[in-house]
Amino acid sequence: MISLSAHPEAIDLDLSRSALVIIDMQRDFLEPGGFGASLGNDVSLLRSAIAPCQTLLAAARALGMLVIHTREGHLPDLSDAPPAKVMRGKPELRIGSLGPMGRILIRGEPGHGIIPELAPIKGEIIIDKPGKGAFYRTELGDVLKEQRIENLLVCGVTTEVCVHTTVREGNDRGYRCIVISDACASYFPEFHRVALAMVSAQGGIFGWVSDSAAVVAALSSEHSVSMS
Q1: Active site residues
Q2: Is CATH 3.20.20.380 the right assignment for the domain spanning 2-31+43-75+115-227?
Q3: Does residue 30 sit in helix, strand or coil?
Q4: DSSP letters of 64-114?
Q5: Taking the domains of the chain in order of start, what are their residue ranges?
Q6: How many whole angstroms separate alpha carbon 108 and alpha carbon 51?
Q7: Which tens digit of pLDDT belongs to each residue from 118-136?
Q8: pTM for this structure?
Q9: Which residues 6+ apart lie within 8 Å of 146 measured at CB?
């Protein structure tokens, strides 16, 4: 059990009932030539989340916490991609179009892969999702129930879209969600700031907001205790 500094207030967590969820740290969102760039975004703005995610991942692995990676993407035939999502942006740069990293936002293509800095290791769970939220049309709910998880430490990109949607879904399902502020990022810094404020407003209506330094310190302290 740890006490984690957070907003709107500190939260006590049973780490044996907690999981680190890393949302969509994929080449398609963080590198030139992927889906994020196809929408006209400056993908370099997301790179600030990489180092904090790395420190969180290392601390979680050292403690033996459940680690879950998610990837947004679609089947090659686009049967799981609604037209309202596909028909967005320039026709030659839409989901399924051929780009510098293969077909944009398609499972199995190079751009769909998680960036090398955060590559999953054996035993870590990868959830492939067709939508913004990690619970929609995925096995995530079953995995969390099987592992008896109650608390989700959430990071990744983008703050106001896939992170926010997953936290809202998790909150509705009874999970206590803690968003790690500096381990999330957005193409729009103002959206990032407001999205975090929305999570912790009204007494924490969707969850809690902490930062990687606080989380890593708490996890490292627990690891030291367990090793002594």
Answers
A1: 24, 129, 162
A2: no
A3: helix
A4: T-EEEEEEE-B-TT-TTS-HHHHS-S-GGGSTTSEEBTEETTBTTSGGGSB
A5: 2-31+43-75+115-227
A6: 25
A7: 999 999 999 999 999 999 9
A8: 0.96
A9: none
